[in-house]
Amino acid sequence: MPSVMAPIVERRRQVLGRLATLASLSLAAGPWPAQAGSQLEEPLSHAVRTALSAAVADAAPPEPVLRTQADQQAYAQWQAASSQRLLRYKNHPVERQEFLQTLWYEARRAGLPLSLVLGLVQVESAFRKFAISSAGARGYMQVMPFWARSIGDGHEGRLFHMQTNLRFGCVILRHYLDREKGDLFMALGRYNGSRGQAHYPQAVLAAQQVWRHSVD
Q1: Which one of 9, 17, 43, 112 has the fewest CB atoms closer than 10 angstroms to its CB?
Q2: If DSSP states are collapsed to H, E and C, what string results for the chain?
Q3: CA torsion angle for 19, 24, 26, 28 (degrees, to 10)?
Q4: pLDDT digit string (tens) for 19-55?
C-alpha cells in the first residue's frame, strides 16, 4: 500500500522544481539584490544548544583536506570557475580566493552543497562582508546577533569575521535542515524568518543554479 505522504512529497518536489526554473530566467539581468530576513529566536533545548555551541567553537584554519591528486584538481577547477563568477562582487583576487577557500571548508564541514551556500550568501548579502540588515542580521550569511549570545561567546562583532560568519551560517542552516527533516524549502524559509513562504526559497534556488559545479 503506497504511503499517504508520497503525493505530498512528490508535489513539493515538483513545486520546488518549477520555482527554480521560473526564477532562473531572471538571472541574466544581473546580481540579485541582498534580501536578508530576520531569523527568529526560538528556545533551544540544552542538548541542542550544547551541540550547536560545539559546532561553532573550533576555530581551525579553513584548509581544504585534499587527499588525492584528483581531489586537488577538482578543488582547483571549482576555485577557478567560482572565482570567475565571483568577480562581479569581489575585485581582489586574493580576497576571492580566501573567501572561496573558507566557504569550501565550512560548507563541507556542515555537509552542505557548495552551490547552496554560495546561492544563500548571494541572496542574503550580495557577498558584502559588513552587510547589516534592518533587523540587525550581520555579515555574509546575515546571522542574527542572538545566535552569538545563544551558542557563541556573546561577542556580536565577531559575526563580521569571515570564517566566524560562514561557520555560524552553515551550522544554523544545517540545524534547520535537520529540524525540517531534510526539507530544503522549509529550512530555507526558517533561515530567513519566512517559513512557508515561497519568495525566499525561490530566490536562493535560482541563485544556486549559477554556482552549480561537478564537485558540488
Answers
A1: 43
A2: CCCCCHHHHHHHHHHHHHHHHHHHCCHHHCCCCCCCCCCCCCCCCHHHHHHHHHHHHCCCCCCCCCCCHHHHHHHHHHHHHHHHHHCCCCCCHHHHHHHHHHHHHHHHHHCCCHHHHHHHHHHHHCCCCCCECCCCCECCCCECHHHHHHHCCCCHHHHHCHHHHHHHHHHHHHHHHHHCCCCHHHHHHHHHCCCCCCHHHHHHHHHHHHHCCCCC
A3: 170
A4: 444 434 333 334 445 565 677 777 788 888 898 899 8
Going from N- to C-terminal start, the domains of the chain cover: 6-211
% of the chain residues with pLDDT over 70: 82
Q: What percent of the chain has pLDDT over 90?
A: 60
Q: What's the sign of the alpha-carbon dihedral 175, 178, 180, 183?
A: positive
**pTM, full prediction:** 0.80
Q: What is the pLDDT of residue 1?
A: 46
